[in-house]
Input
Amino acid sequence: MSQPGYNAETMSSGLIVESIFGLLQSNLKEVNINGHGETTIVKGWDKIFKPLLESPINCNLISNLSKNYSDNEIEALARLHVLTISCDTFDPKTYQELRRNGSLVNILVTIQRIRLKCSELGTRVPHIGFSCVLGADNAIQLSDFINTSRQLKVDFLQFCDLTEYPAPPDADYTLKPLTDLTEKELSYVEKTLKDAISTNSPRIGIQDGIFRKLQSTES
Output
């Protein structure tokens, strides 16, 4: 979305209402309430999706979860089936470099607020996990990332390979690809991922091709 040729489009309010009504009339079991970009920065997003969130349909959301949320927004987040948090590191310096307007503190506080809201409502807590894009900088912090995730008692972790794009003109920092790692560092990443998978706590999902990249680079 930061690329010069990207053209953003926003659905009209009428089309949004029509779409949600259509979903409610369907036999769908699951809906991902995402577009291109961060859903929760859209003004009134919690009101827009309220009919879906209060329906029998399981609603899932991917969010960087780094803003300060109102009580109504927290209740909306608490009604999700799955909440995937886009977060690539728990190292404050690296996080700030990657997410210039983000806040690790807000992520941690929001997770706790969601859990408290579910307790208040008497509802189940959403399945919460992290989606992490692996590059050279954060991959060497992988053990800390997994251990911190366990301490936060999240349900799952998803690891994706970095897709490289030209850096935006205003970027001070960009994540470097896994291929920039040394052979020793690549071996560490591979072993750490395999050890995490073997423990199955939290559940680990890894994008197809990451292990092939790690192994082919070694050779």
User: Anything to note?
Assistant: The chain has one domain: 29-218.
